[in-house]
Design brief:
Order of helices and strands: EHHHHHEHHEHEEHEHEEHHEHE
Shape: globular
Number of strands: 10
Number of helices: 13
Largest sheet: 6 strands, mixed
Length: 296
Amino acid sequence: MKKAYVFPGQGSQFPGMAKDLYEANAGAKAMLEKANEILGFRITDIMFNGTPEDLKATKVTQPAVFLHSVVLAKCYEGFHPDMVAGHSLGEFSALAAAGAMDFEDALRLVSIRARAMQKACEIKPSTMAAIIALPTEKVEEICADCSGVVVPANYNCDGQIVISGEIDAVNEACEKMKAAGAKRALILQVGGAFHSPLMEPAREELAEAIETTVFKTPVCPVYQNVTAQASVDPATIKKNLLAQLTSPVKWTYTVRNMIADGAGYFMEIGPGNVLQGLIRKIAGDTVTVEGLSCLK
């Protein structure tokens, strides 16, 4: 039975995150202090003592989730993955944990990504919505039939797809989804249209940083959001990471492919438990699913 380690994305942050790691493990403390130095501000002060609102700040949220996840993986003696994957931002955590990028380089990319996404959100008003209990094909069909930009952004599990785009287009799509039988079409409290064509300015800005970053062969296959396929080739990993911001997160297919390739045990490493729930919905009782948010 192969072990798969998965890493959460933005939205899993919480006040006090990684404080236990910092206090209990010298290696974790050193990594987190190094992060403060790289970022140019004490992100640990916000992670440990900030309010939920403080943690929503773009320059904080993504680095904070990344740090909690990667520091935990690096300090966990049981981290011996046969395969890894991450949801959206979590793909950067997965790549760093698996050695495809140095910790410092990955953190710099995450920081650039967060700021670039915020700037892209300010260019054009946009949003996202969760569509519950509507067939995937119907969601895709309705998005394609709407005026304006609206696309499937996150294929989270069967019956749960997040759409992304211009505000009017997303609202139009939500009404059509409900009319078509969706149980819910819920507008999400997010800053903009992630994983849609509206993130193109952010992709261009991040591309410059990715192109100058050294990528290495990871210790195990990395299943990437854009393709849902495994890769160990640095050039392929870089190409897929470049496309990630404007492409959908194919999480459902990623988990299925990992299981098809022998994964029988999944552990979510980082804050929260969102991925554990999604994996259980995708795989049922066919796999073992656990979480690790602090050192055992």
